[in-house]
Amino acid sequence: MKTTFTLFRRPLVAGLGLLLLVGNVPEAHAQQRTPPAQPPAGSMQAPTPSGPWTLQAAVDYALANNLNVRQSRLSAQLADVTLLQSRAALWPTANLNGSQTWNYGTSINPLTNDFQSQTTRSNNFSANTQVTLFSGFQLRNTVKRNVLDYEAALGDIEKARNDLSLNVASAFLQTLLAQELVRTNQTRVNSTQQQVERTQVLLKAGSVAESNLIDSRAQLATDQLNVITAQNQETLARLQLAQFMNLNEAATQALEITTPPLPDPDELSLADVNPSATYQTAQAIQPEIKAADLRVQSALRNVEVARGAYYPRLFFGAGIFTGYSSARNLTVIGNDSTARRTTFYVENPNGGGITPLSVTTYQRDVSTLPQRYWDQLDNNLGRSLQFSLQVPILNGLQARTNVQRSKIAVSQAELRAEQERLLLRQNIEQAYADALAAQRQYIASKEQVESLTLAYRNAEIRFNNGLLNGTEFNIAKNNLTAAESSMIQAKYSFIFRRKVLDFYQGKSIEL
């Protein structure tokens, strides 16, 4: 979470710091604005919106179109599919098999196991099923582990949404800050332009020296440059906001945001915030903490999955088989018969030689026909039942090392969860410290602006009366400009940090 929070803080801090230079005349010429950091990649096919954007509308649009959030949703869908597959592993398996074979030359008949030398066609059909009766509870523990992984993936979606919401809020406030600095610098240009015109009149009247007019014109050029710099800052801030929102080119060019009333921070603005209480609240509701705890439970469940490899495995299977062979024939005895006369020679027992004896026999007609296809499938039908037991004895220490790796993974998950809590606490403490510093800076800057405003008015009167040269007058004006810019920066810095603290307390990000 700390990395994410730093990402949020950097655009705002960089934007506020650089935009402050718009009103700081001595440093405005030396600074060059670098392009903003690229936000998460996004599709440029979003529909073109219309109308000024509120912060809530910008956040909602970004959540619907940002690719990082979409990627988190896809990761959750993958975890859901993995969970479904692990649940389906508890069900029996069932498969149908079929084949058709042609044998040429000498081969073994697959149904009679006789050698034959002829071309035969055979079909084999089988169906089998198997169910795991016991596997060391690995299947059930895998389901429980995947349930936890899926819930953690849902937490990742919420974290991605929260990260994007804070990024959009930061860019939105940067844009508001830039717009206010543009207005402030434009007001200074108008004031300086009027001062140049007054100085010209006074110079013609002989009330002031020509050097005062030269100094006023130089100050006008500086103020105009500051306006251009502020406008560039506004353009970059709007571009960064549009990129976070994943707007297309046309919508980026037409992007306009509303300017809500933002209260000035005072001494009681942080009276209702306690870092310790905020941390306790955030710890219970932030999705990254929930996801980290779920992954610890998932790692513990994975230890049980690994330990299941120590236990024997028992399976039950059943199958059915049949087949057909074109070489299988059927002997058919017909109703017709054929008479055969057979002559036997019998030796006379009383002597006198051999006597011929004729016997007539009748034999039925026998023919060999191919056995019909469906009759073979019915006659060759076989069934089987099987129990299979696997007892692990020695498998290269795979089970032992898997258990050790899973235990180490538990320690890593616990360490990551502890780190998430530490980073969350540090982020809250940092946000509170930054908000408190911005609050103090705003109060001090406000008092400084009031004092410098009086000093500037006095200097303006003296300058118009020729009692103050242009250089001293410009110094007084630039001091007021720097104080006003510092006050504006402190105001927006406080507002963002206060919104971060509200976010950790479970409140919505609203202006």
TrEMBL record:
Give UniProt keywords alphabetically.
Cell outer membrane, Membrane, Signal, Transmembrane, Transmembrane beta strand, Transport
Region (Disordered) residue ranges read 30-50
Q: Where in the cell is it found?
A: Cell outer membrane
Report the domain of life of the source organism: Bacteria
Q: Where is the signal peptide?
A: 1-30
Q: Which InterPro entries match?
A: OMP_efflux, TolC-like
| Family assignment from sequence similarity | Belongs to the outer membrane factor (OMF) (TC 1.B.17) family.
What name does UniProt use for this protein? TolC family protein
Q: Which organism is it from?
A: Hymenobacter profundi
| Phylogenetic placement of the source organism | Bacteria, Pseudomonadati, Bacteroidota, Cytophagia, Cytophagales
